[in-house]
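Below is a filled-in request sheet from our internal design queue. Each sheet records the structural input a requester submitted and the sequence that came back. We keep these sheets so that new team members can see what a complete request looks like end to end.

REQUESTER: design group, bay 2
PRIORITY: normal
MODE: inverse folding
CHAIN LENGTH: 257
BACKBONE (tokenized):
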């Protein structure tokens, strides 16, 4: 149901329910959270890539499974296995998480994608929060993350209508970083990952932490945090190596890469 592989410093996590378009059921959610924890605690891993099998990223929550639950059970389900819990963990990870998106990326799948740090999508990818179509509100973070990514009015329109968003529009409005032809998707992801791997892992983590903090702090508090993080980097070996390499006109060899 979930594939996990570490190769050359990259943890490849693949949602593997292709017959259900990788819909998120309890087993898949639990496996994903466990895989993310393994990647975070594995010193070999520099970058994490999250993707789906069978030509789709994730079609959202498994409504067939959830339809059998009572309101009380749904609350417990979200507490233990909810998309918000998974994306919160992704946000707190020191590793950079790249989403590789093909095909459907809807509902909880779209919310999962929004929790990642960088998104590479194929031109045939389709995004959306169609919960309104079945009489539900989003429950995995869309009402909070989507406005921050694409703007207040655009986010409302997407969620209130439940319409689908093409890859081209998703790139234009800032929902994804890159859109490539389907046959180039893995290649583009690998290029991005290779670039990230040349950077200092601790510095990548600090930048991620500072940017994430901007979602929850005032401007003045965020700027103060940025200054403190910047000052901290001056005490690191990677900062010394980076500046020395620049002055010597060579590529840096970061110790904590």
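RETURNED SEQUENCE:
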């Amino acid at each position: 149901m979930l594939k996990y592989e570490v190769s050359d410093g990259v943890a490849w996590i693949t949602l593997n329910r292709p017959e259900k378009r990788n819909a998120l059921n309890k087993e898949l959610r639990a496996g994903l959270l466990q895989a993310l924890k393994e990647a975070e605690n594995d010193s070999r891993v520099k970058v994490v890539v999250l993707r789906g099998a069978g030509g789709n990223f994730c079609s959202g929550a498994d409504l067939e499974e959830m339809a059998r639950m009572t309101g009380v059970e749904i609350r417990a389900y979200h507490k233990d296995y909810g998309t918000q819990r998974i994306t919160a963990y992704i946000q707190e990870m020191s590793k950079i998480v790249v989403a590789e998106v093909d095909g459907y990326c809807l509902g909880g799948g779209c919310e999962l994608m929004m929790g990642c740090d960088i998104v590479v999508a194929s031109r045939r990818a389709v995004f959306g929060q169609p919960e309104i179509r079945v009489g539900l509100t989003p429950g995995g973070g869309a009402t909070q993350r989507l406005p921050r990514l694409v703007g207040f009015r655009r986010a409302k329109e997407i969620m209130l209508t439940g319409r689908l968003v093409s890859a081209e529009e998703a790139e234009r409005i800032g929902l994804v970083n890159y859109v490539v032809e389907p046959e180039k998707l893995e290649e583009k992801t690998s290029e991005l990952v290779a670039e990230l791997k040349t950077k200092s892992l601790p510095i990548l983590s600090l930048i991620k932490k500072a940017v994430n903090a901007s979602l929850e702090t005032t401007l003045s508090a965020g700027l103060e945090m940025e200054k403190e993080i910047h000052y901290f980097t001056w005490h690191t070996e990677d900062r010394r190596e980076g500046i020395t390499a620049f002055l010597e006109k060579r590529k840096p060899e970061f110790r904590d890469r």
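SHEET NOTES:
- The beta strands are 2-7, 10-15, 47-52, 96-101, 104-106, 118-122, 126-128, 165-166, 178-180.
- The CA atoms of residues 174 and 215 lie 16 Å apart.
FILED BY: M.R.
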